[in-house]
Amino acid sequence: MVREFKLPDVGEGVAEGEIRKWLVREGEEVREFQPIAEIMTDKVNVEMTSPFTGKIVKFTAKEGEVVKVGQSILQYESEGEEAEKPPVAPTPPQIRQDHAPPMIESRSTVQVKATPAVRKRARELGIDLGTVIPHDPSGRITIEDLETASAARKAPQARQATAAVSGDERIPVAGVRRRIFERMTESKRNIPHFNYTDEVDMTNIVAARDAFSKRLGENVKVTYLPFIVKALIAALKDHPVLNSSYDEKTNEIVVKHHYNIGIAVAAPDGLVVPVLKDADTKGVAQLSEDIGSLASKARAGKLQLADVQGGTITVTNVGPIGGLFSSPIINYPESAIVGIHKIEQRPVFRDGQIVVRHMMYFTVACDHRIIDGAEAAMFGNRFIEYLEKPFLLKLE
């Protein structure tokens, strides 16, 4: 009997997903819990597993197609009780529990962990498993790792072929880039932005960072960002309207009294914004650890849905790259975003004397429907005060 398999509800308010890649073929026999597709949803790649053992009859959704939750994506044949089991929601590869994969030998002398399905796919792609770098902490190679390795090998050839024909390169707008297109367009279409820019003396923060680094030792990398987050939260408590959003359905401004700080990360596939949950309850050491963990997961493509949702305000750090100013785009539906820039030594006047201090520009982009210019300026002044006087902050 032919049955329909519909895109399952993954929760967290997600209503649709993009079929990034089918991991099986029409006519192929699959087993329960076998990975069958990569789904892109809300800037996160997740691996969807099969809830049945049977045969794939036909795909009803194509790669690159965006489908709604509850929409049919494939037809399959299955017998017995397995056919009655509900669909399995997509699950990030790093938390999905399978049967323990066997240890196998690749064509090289390196032992690798891989399931039979992964070994089969490796043979189809002509990839030596011993050359594949696994992203799973257990060292298990996944279908995603194989596809990444295959794409890396094919990309230069495809680009050379395209350039040879037309001289131009065409890049499909898909996956994370598609989400960036949608989110940035939505933000600029719906939110009237304005920017407020100022500079802050970061000399005391530099000293505080150095002191924390010495105390915590080499095992904990302490950046300036945790201190900036602490100052941001303190300023938000004085000016809470910047920690808000607009509820279009009820025509209400929702002022948040919890502090989930989005941290913009430049990942290989594009910009993603993992969220530091309840950041006001954490000290500098914990914030350093959490920021490092989220950034690593973002760059490895291992973020889960919960990692990117629930943000109340976002920080984007362009300082390591350079530049004096920027005009960041608000992470819709938030009402503000803070752009921080490079810290550099500059001569400034202090008490009638020219001295050298560590200075930094910052920009606050605000939703002008919710936040007035004077409010943004007062917030900026408090932000400066907390950064220049870190003893006012609870750093631990």
SSE sequence, one letter per element: EEEEEEEEEEHHHEHHEEEEEEHEEEH
Question: Major sheet, described briefly?
Answer: 6 strands, mixed
In the predicted model, the low-confidence regions spanning at least 5 consecutive residues are 86-110
Architecture of the largest domain in CATH?
2-Layer Sandwich
Shape label: elongated
CATH class of the largest domain: Alpha Beta
CATH superfamily of the largest domain: Chloramphenicol acetyltransferase-like domain
What does this molecule look like?
- The chain has 396 residues and is of the alpha+beta class.
- The chain folds into three domains: 1-93, RNA polymerase II/Efflux pump adaptor protein, barrel-sandwich hybrid domain (OB fold (Dihydrolipoamide Acetyltransferase, E2P), Beta Barrel); 98-172, Irregular (Dihydrolipoamide Transferase); 193-392, 2-Layer Sandwich (Chloramphenicol Acetyltransferase), CATH 3.30.559.
- It is 28% helix and 28% strand.
- It contains seven helices and 20 strands.
- A six-stranded mixed sheet has the order 11-20-19-18-14-17, with helices on one face. Strands 1-8-6-3 form a four-stranded antiparallel sheet, with no helix packed on it. Strands 5-4-2-7 form a four-stranded antiparallel sheet, with no helix packed on it.
- A hairpin with a 2-residue loop joins strand 19 (336-350) and strand 20.
- Helix 5 (225-238) packs across helix 6 (284-299) and helix 5 crosses helix 7 (373-388).
- It is elongated and about 85 Å long.
